[in-house]
Amino acid sequence: MKIGVPKEIKNNENRVGMTPAGVFELVKNGHTVYVQSTAGEGSGFFDDDYLQVGAIILDTIEGVYLKSDMIVKVKEPVDQEYNLIQENQLVFTYFHFASSETLTKAMITSKAICIAYETVEDADGTLPLLTPMSEVAGRMAIQQGAKYLEKPIKGRGVLLGGVPGVPPGRVLILGAGTVGIQAAKMAAGLGAHVTILDINMKRLRHVNDIMPSHVVTEFSNEYNIRRHIKTHDLIVGGVLIPGAKAPSLITRDMLKEMHPGTVIVDVAVDQGGCIETTKATTHENPTYIIDDVVHYCVANMPGAVPYTSTVALTNVTLPYVLKLANMGWEKACQTDKSLQKGLNIVKGTIVYEGIAEAFGWEVSCS
Q1: 122 catalytic, yes or no?
Q2: CATH fold for domain 131-303
Q3: Domain named Alanine dehydrogenase/pyridine nucleotide transhydrogenase NAD(H)-binding: which ranges (predicted)?
Q4: Which CATH number fits domain 2-120+306-359: 3.40.50.720, 3.40.50.10260, 3.40.30.10, 2.40.30.20?
Q5: What is the pLDDT of residues 150-208, one digit of tens each?
Q6: Given 198, 233, 270, 295, which residue is catalytic?
Q7: 270 is catalytic
């Protein structure tokens, strides 16, 4: 199979869809890999690194799309790429369709086969291709939140770890999934007081078992959320419904109940956000303020640490890329039920229910 790795062109996205190590494995299996020139530089991988493992370097993104049967990316195609995607071309990337009707309609029009990393799901409900980026984003949420709590950038002026004689900052985490646990781990490591909310008691028991005593768990409901937002300095949104739009757990009216300078980091922004006032931002302009509450809603947080993120991503995507390349998408999805759940749009037809529900459409097949 001919596999293309284009350069990401989303704002400040420095990751790349495949490391040289990944390309090496594909070439070893008899496949041709086209890599756009300088595609890996943001992650610390250069054209010579790819050439040494057998990749073919192409100068333009148009050339990569034109020559490839399968496109392996990191982020969803942006509008400049819509017309480059060909009918029956396989596109394997993070799509997050439920957050963008424009993207969804463009991929329907393209009649491509769209397999989304974020909906590939194992039998136990885990999301193997989303997990490493959720781990990165959860940890980064605390780094960024700690920074934006500083007064010069309109935060409350709170040091999360506190100092002797001064209590530590308070962190509220919505969701005890991968993002929430990783955020709690980082915040606890800094010495912050952490409250983590979820509706899944099994997850809360797990958090209770593995976290230190200054990480406390509570059941998530509106009453508890309204109570805690009044006293917490940093709020992390880590709620996920695979493939569907995230629910709004904090509404606009709740912002007035927070201290001025409270920071919200909504990691769920890719799926529309779990804060009503969330709107996607970029690393170039990461924050905005509503009712004196600082919002950090960067839609590609792991893109700020591209070496770590690219290696972590290729570690988990490569087995699936190899399966798709070796078997073709139809046979691969028939034999691998986890991969089958990654199918979102096939030749103009939505096949993933969460996308249709997000826009009030019907699913044509399953």
Answers
A1: no
A2: Rossmann fold (3.40.50)
A3: 149-297
A4: 3.40.50.720
A5: 999 999 999 999 999 999 999 999 999 999 999 999 999 999 999 999 999 999 999 99
A6: 270
A7: yes
